[in-house]
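A favour between colleagues. Tell me how you read the following sequence-structure pair.

===
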Amino acid sequence: MTTINIFKSRIRSPRDVVIHLALGVSLGYLIGILFIFDGDNDISKHIHLMEHEKSTPKPESFNLRCVIILHKATHKPENIISAITDGYAKLCQETIFFTNNQKLFDKFQKFQNNYTMYHVDSSLNHFYWTYYLYAMEFSSKVPAQWTFLGDDQTYLIVPNLRNTLRNFDSEKPVVLGKVKDTSTLFSWLFPLSSFKKISVRGGVVLSNPAIDKLSACKGFFFSRASDFALYDCSEKYGVQIADPFDEDALRLFNDLPPKQIIAPDSKLFRSSPTKAGKCSDHAISFGQLSEKDMRVLQFGMSLKVFGRGGLDTSSNETTDF
């Protein structure tokens, strides 16, 4: 029997080792460079610059329905509901919760509440278009001027939203939110896929005509992911998409908490560190917040700041975050 030494057969000269190592490092570096250009770019045609210093006509009425979708796996959802109802929900003319957590729904029904909760018998969540569309349609059986659709990690600053909506006609189909293009240099491999989205993590505001049009967006050929389906359907059915920015080119809809925008995560392992950002004084929403984050944000907005006056949520004429 002949014995083959596989280790001996793999021995190479130092020159071969160096060549293979150099090729491996170069290939890895090239792939890394490609992933750095991961898209996530703004889409210029949807950017809507707001002139907050310019006086805008006061709307005759402002009717806002707030729809909040609760994750089934949310830790201590009762605390989240409390933070929302103690905060921005007070400024909504109607607040509706959707959940697929049966225990939470049963517990909620035992108490007298000023808010409505519906149970959705589904294992999906609002990141799936079928669930998201159901919540959108079901909540709008009685039309509202504007509908805010967010989740239990989103916080809405209603006075700032009110001021922004003065620039839009509620009788026309329009959706407002954070719009991004997530295409990469590899996107050409999937020519039939869409890489443009409206981030549902940052909350979305829709006029009633927009909901009517989007209700027709069903079928196999639409994306299953809510972010991408919302963009594709809006484009297909003629719904205006608006991504509002302030005068300083700062976004008003945010899908991250303020602390992560201002102070990004550790830069220790980043080859190109992310610069710290800024939050707009006119910010409308923040996403991915904990219950504690919501409480702190609400407390901060209620403070009176010398020289600025702060935010008085009891008045319909106040502005700024």
